[in-house]
Amino acid sequence: MENSRSVSILFFVHTVVLSIVSINCKDNNNLVTNQAALFVFGDSLFDAGNNNYIDTFSRFKSNIWPYAQTTFKSPTGRISDGRLIPDFIAEYAWLPLIPPNLQPSNGHNQFTFGVNFASGGAGALVETFPGMVISLGAQLNNFKNVEKRLRSELGDSEAKRIISRAVYLFHIGGNDYVYPILFANSSTFKSSSKEKFSDFVLGNITAVIEEVYKVGGRKFGFLNIGAYDCAPASLIIDRTKIGSCFKPITDLINMHNKKLPNVLERLESDLSGFKYALHDYHTSLSERINNRLKYGFKEGKKACCGTGPLRGINTCGGRVWGLSQRYELCENVTEYLFFDSFHLTEKAHRQIAELIWSGPSNVTGPYNLKALFELK
Ligand SMILES: *[C@@H]1O[C@H](CO)[C@@H](O)[C@H](O)[C@H]1NC(C)=O
Ligand SMILES: *[C@@H]1O[C@H](CO)[C@@H](O)[C@H](O)[C@H]1NC(C)=O
Ligand SMILES: *[C@@H]1O[C@H](CO)[C@@H](O)[C@H](O)[C@H]1NC(C)=O
Ligand SMILES: *[C@@H]1O[C@H](CO)[C@@H](O)[C@H](O)[C@H]1NC(C)=O
Predict the structure, then answer these.
(1) May I ask which residue range the UniProt record assigns to the signal sequence (predicted)?
(2) Which residue out of 22, 43, 44, 282 is catalytically annotated?
């Protein structure tokens, strides 16, 4: 409680300061803001509520208690007990919380500080949870619509300035590898080698980056894929080896993460003015799973919310089988790395966001996000 009160005060102060800043700017030369905006693309690590507004199964929505309860008064759709990585990045960049793209507009210019397009369950491939999520390609189309709206509301040159100074943050790909192994084998997966399949995933990510660049984006932030083969849900797949990471996913994630730096280096040399940050999320997450005490967690492998061994069965919130479904909820969420069987706690998000924001170049490089935001 103490904690959530200080957080609301922080938000309040933050909002007041921002209002003053934007009023000043408006008075000066009719600019809405001088802050670089933040546009967010990706999956459940980043979804701040878009899935609440799409027609999908309840298990893709986290608009239910106890999700988001640590920080927010009511559930927001964030798939954690509280804030997500982009919420912290926005705070460090002196931006307000970045609204989900599909959240109904509550006034003028709600998108000038940026927009969150991410969708829980999304992948880079259209075959990943088809029809249930907003795929990366659909997120790109939503971004293009926002850019059109900025142009019609603010004029071409102001819109161009916002787009080129903004930072574009991505976490995508994990679901493309988890989906065929655990849910359904797409024809693309069945007919490709693992090597070829990861080229498809990276090829589709590259195509989206190039499109954002064409629209005017220049500053990009990426997380490689986290160690989700070692999330509580994965640790219980093989009932004879509870607690071991799930190998078929490990291989795919490793292959992807090995290729991603080369893909980004190539983009940097092909696209003039393209600047990027790559955070080694795989290392920062595995570090915490394996050395939980060092990072202030009592539990690195057991989820706070869920059912069964390691609470690895994703029943949190009772959304899968209805509210009558029983699930366990830990007493003290700050002791946990994982909130539910696949998603981290706010405390973990804060630690990782700090590394993305100001980490040294062997953790986040060649730029970190702070440096990208400061670039003119
Ligand atoms: C898809 O095929 C792979 C082997 O090609 C197999 O390991 C996996 O279990 C299959 N996935 C599903 C959901 O049937
Ligand atoms: C994108 O993925 C599809 C499979 O969904 C694949 O056929 C296509 O070649 C990929 N595109 C690129 C540019 O790799
Ligand atoms: C919850 O856990 C944190 C970290 O381990 C600890 O500092 C705090 O005192 C605990 N809170 C309660 C109410 O037990
Ligand atoms: C990054 O470099 C610092 C020293 O410069 C070192 O202490 C740290 O362990 C390195 N981190 C990783 C993830 O390699």
Answers:
(1) 1-25
(2) 44
Q: Are residues 22 and 57 in the same domain?
A: no
Domain range for residue 175?
36-228+244-281+358-374
Tell me: do 7 and 40 sit in the same domain: no
How many CA atoms lie less than 13 Å away from 177 in the CB half-sphere? 29
* 151 and 211, same domain (yes or no): yes
Structure token digits, residue 119? 């969708």
Is 338 part of a structural domain of the chain? Answer: no
- State whether 59 and 198 are in the same domain: yes
Q: Which of 42, 120, 37, 38 is nearest to 78 (CA)?
A: 120
Alpha helices by DSSP H, the chain? 2-29, 85-92, 136-154, 156-165, 174-182, 187-190, 194-215, 232-235, 247-270, 281-290, 346-358, 369-374
**216 inside domain:** yes
Any idea which ligand is nearest the CA of 337?
3
pLDDT of 111 reads 84
pLDDT given at position 374 = 96
Structure pTM?
0.90
Tell me whether residue 340 is one of the annotated catalytic residues: yes
Q: Greater confidence, 200 or 21?
A: 200
Whether pLDDT at 356 is above 90: yes
Measured by CA distance, the residue closest to atom 13 of ligand 3 is 332
User: Do residues 7 and 73 share a domain?
Assistant: no
> For residue range 313-344, what is the model confidence (pLDDT) as tens digits?
999 998 765 555 689 999 999 999 999 999 99
Ligand 1 pocket residue status of 183, Cβ below 6 Å:
yes
Is residue 324 domain-resident?
A: no
